[in-house]
């Protein structure tokens, strides 16, 4: 799960989004976003789907290690 924690924080920061903005978009508390990013809380499946939509990432991309290349059918 460390992969998703790192991915979420990096994706959020790269977009210039605050934890509060992400929380509002996901319909969860800012504390929950903070706790997910720190690994204190795991996102529910429903929140994972919302994260995929918010960040415009596939399930596979969201769970991929940050230093891995994004999945493509040719790799």
UniProtKB/TrEMBL annotation:
Residues in the signal sequence:
none
Ranges of residues in domain HTH cro/C1-type: 8-62
User: Which InterPro entries would you find in this protein's record?
Assistant: Cro/C1-type_HTH, Lambda_DNA-bd_dom_sf
**What PANTHER family does the database record attribute to this sequence?**
DNA-BIDING PHAGE PROTEIN, TRACRIPTIONAL REGULATORY PROTEIN-RELATED-RELATED
Q: What is this protein called?
A: Helix-turn-helix transcriptional regulator
Any one Pfam family here would be: HTH_3
Keyword annotations of the record? DNA-binding
Looking up CDD domains in the UniProt record yields:
HTH_XRE
Highest taxon of the lineage: Bacteria
Q: Name one GO molecular function term.
A: DNA binding
Q: Which organism is it from?
A: Aminipila butyrica
């Amino acid at each position: 799960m460390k992969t998703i924690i790192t991915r979420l924080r990096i994706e959020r920061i790269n977009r210039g989004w605050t934890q509060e903005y992400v929380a509002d978009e996901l319909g969860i508390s800012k504390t929950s976003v903070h706790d997910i990013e720190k690994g204190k809380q795991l996102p529910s499946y429903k929140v994972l789907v919302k994260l995929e939509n918010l960040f415009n990432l596939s399930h596979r991309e969201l769970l991929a290690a940050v230093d891995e290349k994004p999945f493509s059918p040719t790799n």
